[in-house]
Design a protein that fits this description.
By secondary structure, the protein is mostly helical. The chain has 14 helices and 6 strands. Helix 10 (249-272) packs across helix 13. The protein binds zinc ion (ZN) (2 copies).
Length: 397
């Protein structure tokens, strides 16, 4: 059988690694450009509002939350108007802005959006006045970026999406962003090719095309070509393309982890995102995040364990409680319970939580009280452990 070391030395596998690195280099080359355009969008929006409402030049509002500035129902985020899951509390209802600003900003964001469907779930309206990026997040994919605090912390897909969805980038690029197929849509497609590659291999010809198109974007004459960070990215792309990419022990491990992570991420997202809503209605699936209720889990001493239902033991309230003891990872965790108590769903939810740190476009799972420490999964060290745990938990069912 071929060893993984031999596989990593295959030309097509090296090509895939080069493509993944090239996307990252390109993203970094675009950061400042995107930040600058979003800063202009922010200025334009506030100047328009202040002028039209005769407000002082520095007038701001820090009071309105996203729920307060959107009428119910708003397409794409509100559920039933009578029992809306977005406008769900008395202080989370629509209310006109006390400073006469935020409603106008909302309308301007809609005007600046190419498809007039801003991603309201991503944004924090109380920060609109002070942060161009908070307005920029309205131009990202529909959900999953609420806590992403800057362009730099965002992913490749979101950087390209904001350029495609925000009309102000039209004037900053030489090609027609409105065309069905354009340089940005092609480049966004490369991200998908790399993420969804089932064997982590890319042939020479498609790789050459990826490098060519990424360079074309970074060398766009209207603005990007004059920017040092874009020029630096082009230099790095040239170097990477001609590099032999020698695999040593250190980057070998990194590559293996990256490959496994991307594939696991895809696997969990496609297989676990929807679950049957009931054992007797197995054909009826629902989005896990929309109906998930965290189970009550009690920690038991395995040496003293009696009947499953026996009382006593500490309630497991967080992921850390579940997987750690006195700051150390537990080697084995056994989850025991009657059929239908949610063991499978809990393990699926753990795996999905892990994927959310990498695939920011995913929908966060809502939890009222228990298991609110989803940051538990943010450290990369937990990655391999998570895989192990998920298997263990599932096998114990
Ligand atoms: Zn609503
Ligand atoms: Zn306001």
């Amino acid at each position: 059988m071929t060893s993984y070391r031999d596989l990593l030395r295959e030309k097509q596998a090296k090509n895939w690694i080069k493509a993944a690195l090239a996307l990252n280099i390109t993203k970094e080359g675009l950061h400042e450009f995107v930040e600058d355009v979003l800063t202009c969008v922010h200025h334009d929006i506030y100047n328009t509002i202040r002028t039209s409402k005769s407000l002082q030049s520095g007038a701001i509002c820090l009071h309105c939350f996203t729920e307060n500035v959107l009428q119910c129902p708003t397409r794409g985020i509100c559920t039933s108007p009578k029992n809306c899951r977005f406008h769900k509390a008395a202080n989370q209802m629509y209310v006109p802005c006390p400073n006469g600003i935020c409603g106008g900003v909302r309308n301007e964001i809609i005007q600046h959006h190419r498809f007039t469907g801003p991603s309201w779930m991503n944004t924090n309206a109380d920060k609109w006045c002070t942060s161009p990026w908070e307005i920029g997040k309205c131009f990202l994919p529909p959900d999953g970026y609420k806590t992403v605090s800057s362009v730099k912390d965002s992913d490749f897909n979101s950087v390209i999406s904001v350029m495609m969805n925000c009309k102000d980038f039209e004037k900053k690029l030489s090609f027609n962003i409105g065309a069905k197929t354009n340089l940005l849509s092609e480049v966004r497609g490369f991200g998908r090719i790399v993420r969804h590659s089932h064997d982590q291999k890319i042939e020479d010809k498609p790789l050459a095309n990826i490098f060519f198109k990424l360079r074309s974007l970074l060398e766009d004459q209207t603005d990007l070509a004059n920017r040092p960070e874009a020029q630096h990215a082009v230099e790095q792309l040239n170097q990477l393309q001609s590099d032999e990419l020698n695999i040593n022990a250190q980057n070998e491990l990194e590559m293996l982890k990256e490959g496994l992570r991307l594939r696991l991420n895809d696997h969990y997202q496609t297989t676990l995102d929807n679950m049957p809503i009931s054992p007797i209605l197995a054909e009826k699936d629902a989005k896990l995040s929309s109906c998930y209720v965290a189970p009550t889990i009690i920690e038991k001493n395995h040496k003293k364990i009696g009947r499953v239902g026996q009382s006593g033991g500490r309630e497991v309230a967080t992921f850390s409680d579940m997987f750690c003891h006195e700051g150390h990872f537990l080697r084995n965790v056994i989850l025991v319970g009657e059929p239908g108590r949610g063991k499978t769903t809990f393990s699926a939810m753990c795996a999905l939580e892990w994927t959310h740190q990498y695939s920011q476009a995913g929908e966060k799972i809502e939890r009222k009280e228990r298991f609110g420490d989803s940051d538990f999964f943010l450290e990369s060290l937990h990655f391999c452990s998570m895989l192990h745990y998920e298997i263990q938990v599932r096998n114990a069912i």
